[in-house]
């Protein structure tokens, strides 16, 4: 659709006839992201509260449809890229974010660790190096004061505030590690997401576990089994072996649903539920 026609459509957003507005809204939504700059331009020029509210809702619908589409594509063809999955989730709340900032920070953390990394380091020494770079130098820590804050699930906010929940901290840790060819992967432990240093020569079996939320504390398998016993859960492979990136992003979305529910924001909780359904569909 030409710009002149789009502007004519947008000018009808203040029409009091709900049927006309509904048709205009649907037409603009189907135009997709390309219409957003024009909508924003009209929002800035408008002094009508109704028009502004309608424009905000239409922009959100367009962006939400785009996120659903991107998440579906990621699941089908790009789920080996955990960072991209997390950035798609991030776009739900921060669609205008310059994501190069996130890529730069991850690259900087990798570079700082690479500078001190030596080929003959033992797995424990490599973990201690990562702990020093991420926790002591960069300052990452668990958000114990506001554990259920939705911001803990958005990777750029965690990198910005340097505080997060177990799963986002573990994601940052494992992404940096894997970019250094250090085999550390997420473990989908109930109630508390952790990571593991795996043995590449033994079918990715964990050599030991890492409690990222507790500044990279090293744990044995006995600690994991004891934790599961406290929860009255069996020692299933689902809780002991590395999980997929798909499982990680699903858990991030579940955490977000809980966070929004705790805030009483049912609308956002329901939208996140729709995103989760996309990943859970066969």
From TrEMBL:
> Looking at the record's lineage, which domain of life comes first?
Bacteria
UniProt source species: Sphingobacterium olei
Pfam families, sorted = Transglut_core2 (PF13369)
Name the family: Belongs to the UPF0162 family.
UniProt-recorded name of the protein: Protein SirB1 N-terminal domain-containing protein
Q: Protein SirB1 N-terminal domain: which residues?
A: 105-254
Which PANTHER family does its entry note? F-BOX ONLY PROTEIN 21, SI:DKEY-261L7.2
